[in-house]
Amino acid sequence: MPVEITVETPLQDEVRTLVAELNAVLLELTPPEHCHHLTVEQMANDSTAVFIARDNGAAIACGALKRHGDGVGEVKRMYTRPSHRGRKIGEQIVARIEALARSEGLKRLVLETGDRHHAAWKVYERSGFTRCGPVLDYPDVTWSVFYEKKLDG
Q1: pLDDT, position 74
Q2: pLDDT for 32
């Protein structure tokens, strides 16, 4: 059975577990004061769409679109369990985020990731994102790498 990706509420035990795994991985690579985590409670609102990938019903990956003003969407909380890496599930989630952003008329997607998150860079670059300067209200620090993708053409 292929992996299914749908928008779901983050307020589920399986999603809480995925987010806890993601947080643990991020804290191995980035000091806590430079991690910009959204909690599942912060994602449970109309400004954020949370995508969950499931394999045979089990939640195995996630990602989110957080909508900001001025036609900007932000890619957040991207994570694929180690057991499912190498299957381009992250790229599939980014494609779903982009499709939703385009359907809602957003003009630009942005994101912040860590300076040691090389696997994430590959996902974003293969998805057409390019590096840029600081986005939104993120500080310009050596721990952060920023990407953007224009959606208006």
Answers
A1: 98
A2: 77
The partner residues of 49 in beta bridges, in order of sequence, read: 65
- Tokens standing for 142? 């050596």
Domain boundaries, the chain: 4-150
This prediction has a pTM of 0.94
Taking only the tens place, the pLDDT of each residue in 56-81 is 999 999 999 999 999 999 999 999 99
Domain 4-150 has CATH 3.40.630.30: yes
Task: Please choose, from the candidates 117, 110, 104, 106, the residue with its C-alpha nearest in 3D space to the C-alpha of residue 143.
Answer: 117
Q: How far apart are CA 101 and CA 95, in angstroms?
A: 10
Instruction: Give 75-131 pLDDT, tens digit per residue.
Output: 999 999 999 999 999 999 999 999 999 999 999 999 999 998 899 999 999 999 999
